[in-house]
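Researcher: Quick test of sequence recovery. Tokens follow.
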């Protein structure tokens, strides 16, 4: 019995030993294989294969581009995430029968939300992706069967499903759609995030703010976006995409560094006033283009800057940087420069007089004409101050001939002394000579000085000065003779902290003598109160400024006019300097009646914002309206408002719930808006509440940007309405 037990024990130990031996042998084989994988070229090959299947390396993380703000924190340009929608048809949990079951419903939902494709087209895109995966699978199996190591390109991992990029709100919605409401390793849904630029205020100051390229990685394309691109764009990061437990995940190796924010000097309220005022006058005169610039006198901050060009459809939109790029002869606004130089050099006094006669003066066989010369009116003699007031070309010509005919260089040196020939860098990127003054010297070899250059230069011809320089010059007069450079970029912010602040650059601390400055200031008030700009005079404050009307050089001759007005207000304690210019307006050109009226409108409305006049202070005959504009919208609500304010309104011609409001100087006039269930309603001119109610009641989804009243809608009124479609509206 004992012998038998010993034999059994021996057998058990033998079997146990064999098992231990086999396990050790297996462990040695594992260690050997691992070593082979780690240290041999075969291992390198398998690691590469593994990485190709589970890791996608060196993917760039685009940094969030810095925001651009108004001076008081309103967003002019910001970055928001958009998503490109793909499907990974190699997702581990994706099943053909489940996809086939839900693809019809999924396609229907997509076509309702994104109607650029029909449900059938969406279904075709999705099922084509699955067929591509099946084809790739077959190719892989065939290569294995043949022992071919050739790698099959896998294109069905990223099949784009939706044509354009979508917002985060839309992304959340599509994740509730049939089949895509599952986990991503089953649905294959991939949302690739990218940054996109958005302007919450629409086109407000858009030329100055600038644009970025569609591919945001390329950065800024114009305006502040281009000028400060290196600060706004930030520093890209690096990530890789790795497959973990059947699900693709992003792993960040180096995080992106966000770009700096820029706080500008722009005041959104003043900017809006300036844009509306200029646009209305451009439309009225059918001008080719125009610009308006509003500058704070003491600080040099540009509070509003508008550049409008007439587009091919006849509408006006921000186009060229006209404030800097109008390289025209300025005309009569330059007469203030001429007078300042002559007074400072002691050539004349304000009371010195010159014979102008009937408005014709010949010099070196070339006629100098005053604007009244065709009337046959003999004005006899005019003083320097009177010449400025009525904008006499002859007075200016005779001033410079008296003082500088034998030494024209001295006159140009006087202009140089003021600071108008100084080359400056601006916050807006420009090309060539744009944004610089072009004032010739008598000995200039490239710019011929003729026998008549001097007198013609005296009233703003044979030289080129862009609007920004004229603004800077007149602001210097308002600022006690201290000329400062206008600027737009006010502060640069990193992670919420101001890292750099800008201040106005002093171009010239003293443009002229104190006595000269006082004399010029008095003359500019006289231009508005008694001269060519009487129409610009305001009931609320004193305006000082000068009109300008210049012919535009074209093809060796002249074609069309450039009318302008530059000045400041209130004249006694200047707050703002404004330049307004219109290029090629139709009708009789008038610096006062055209550009000057835009100046007046901007000045009075800006003054109201700062001083807060009461309704009783308003005058109907002023550019200020007695009755405020009323938004379009629900007629009952508007009736209640009008009754509470005791404002008169005419009767509605037909029964209607929704109206468009028009007004004259006395009464409001409602007009019925047609609203049907089958057509896109017109919500332009409505407030956000009425517009949202009406659109959503019609079955539309609404994306809203900005504040105020609706200025544009992405689908034109009267189009066929497709319920579930997303419509975008912009308010200002």
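Model:
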């Amino acid at each position: 019995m004992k012998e038998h037990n010993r034999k059994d024990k021996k057998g058990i130990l033998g079997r146990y030993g064999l098992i231990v031996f086999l396990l050790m042998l297996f462990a040695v084989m594992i260690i050997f294989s691992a070593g082979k994988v780690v240290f041999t070229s075969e291992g390198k090959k398998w690691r590469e294969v593994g990485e190709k299947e589970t890791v996608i390396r060196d993917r760039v993380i685009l940094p969030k581009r810095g925001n651009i703000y108004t001076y008081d924190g309103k967003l002019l340009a910001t970055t928001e995430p958009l998503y490109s929608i793909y499907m990974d048809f190699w997702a581990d949990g994706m099943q053909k029968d489940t996809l086939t079951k839900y693809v019809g419903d999924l396609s229907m939902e997509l076509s309702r939300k994104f109607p650029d494709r029909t449900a059938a087209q969406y279904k075709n895109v999705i099922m084509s992706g699955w067929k591509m995966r099946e084809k790739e699978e077959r190719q892989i199996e065939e290569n294995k069967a043949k022992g071919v190591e050739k790698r099959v390109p896998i294109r069905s991992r990223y099949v784009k499903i939706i044509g354009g990029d979508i917002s985060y709100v839309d992304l959340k919605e599509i994740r509730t759609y049939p089949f895509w409401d599952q986990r991503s390793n089953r649905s294959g849904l991939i949302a690739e995030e990218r940054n996109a630029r958005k302007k919450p205020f629409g086109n407000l100051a858009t030329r100055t703010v600038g644009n970025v390229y569609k591919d945001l990685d390329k950065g800024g394309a114009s305006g502040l976006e281009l000028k400060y691109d290196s600060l706004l764009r930030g520093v890209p990061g690096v990530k890789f995409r790795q497959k973990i437990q059947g699900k693709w995940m992003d792993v960040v190796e180096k995080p992106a560094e966000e770009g700096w924010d820029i706080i500008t000097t722009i005041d959104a309220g003043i900017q809006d006033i300036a844009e509306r005022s200029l646009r209305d006058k451009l439309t009225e005169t059918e001008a080719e283009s125009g610009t308006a610039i509003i500058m704070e006198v003491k600080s040099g901050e540009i509070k509003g800057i508008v550049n409008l060009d007439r587009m091919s459809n006849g509408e006006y939109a921000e186009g060229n940087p006209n404030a800097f790029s109008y390289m025209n002869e300025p005309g009569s606004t330059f007469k203030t420069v001429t007078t300042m130089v002559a007074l400072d050099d002691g050539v004349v006094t304000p009371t010195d007089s010159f014979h102008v006669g009937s408005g014709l003066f010949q010099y070196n066989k070339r006629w100098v004409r005053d604007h009244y010369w065709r009337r046959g009116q003999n004005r006899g003699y005019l003083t320097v101050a009177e010449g400025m007031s009525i904008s006499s070309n002859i007075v200016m010509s005779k001033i410079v001939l008296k003082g500088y005919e034998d030494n024209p260089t001295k006159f140009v040196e006087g202009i140089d002394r003021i600071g108008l020939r100084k080359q400056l860098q601006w916050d807006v990127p420009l090309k060539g000579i744009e944004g610089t003054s072009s004032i010739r010297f008598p000995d200039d070899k490239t710019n011929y000085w003729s026998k008549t250059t001097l007198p013609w230069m005296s009233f703003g011809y044979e030289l080129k000065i862009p609007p920004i320089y004229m603004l800077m010059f007149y602001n210097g007069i308002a600022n006690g003779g201290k000329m400062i450079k206008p600027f737009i970029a006010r502060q640069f912010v990193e992670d919420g902290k101001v890292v750099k602040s800008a201040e106005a650059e002093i171009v010239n601390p003293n443009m002229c003598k104190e006595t000269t400055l006082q004399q010029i200031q008095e003359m500019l008030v006289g231009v508005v109160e008694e001269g060519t700009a009487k129409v610009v005079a305001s009931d609320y404050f004193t305006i000082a400024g000068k009109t300008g009307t210049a012919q535009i050089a074209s093809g060796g001759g002249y074609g069309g006019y450039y009318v302008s007005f530059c000045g400041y207000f209130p004249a006694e304690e200047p707050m703002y300097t404004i330049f307004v210019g219109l290029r090629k307006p139709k009708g009789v050109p008038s610096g006062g009646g055209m550009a000057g009226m835009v100046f007046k409108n901007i000045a009075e409305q800006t003054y109201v914002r700062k001083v807060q006049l009461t309704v009783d202070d308003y005058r109907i005959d002023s550019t200020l309206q007695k009755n405020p504009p009323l938004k379009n919208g629900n007629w009952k609500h508007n009736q209640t408002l009008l009754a509470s304010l005791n404002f008169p309104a005419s009767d509605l011609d037909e029964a209607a719930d929704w109206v468009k409001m028009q007004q004259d100087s006395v009464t409001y006039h409602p007009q019925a808006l047609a609203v049907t269930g089958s057509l896109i309603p017109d919500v332009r001119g409505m407030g956000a509440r009425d517009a949202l109610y009406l659109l959503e009641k019609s079955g539309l989804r609404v994306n809203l940007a900005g504040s105020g009243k609706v200025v544009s809608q992405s689908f034109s009124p009267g189009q066929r309405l497709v319920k579930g479609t997303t419509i975008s509206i912009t308010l200002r």
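The mean pLDDT is 87.
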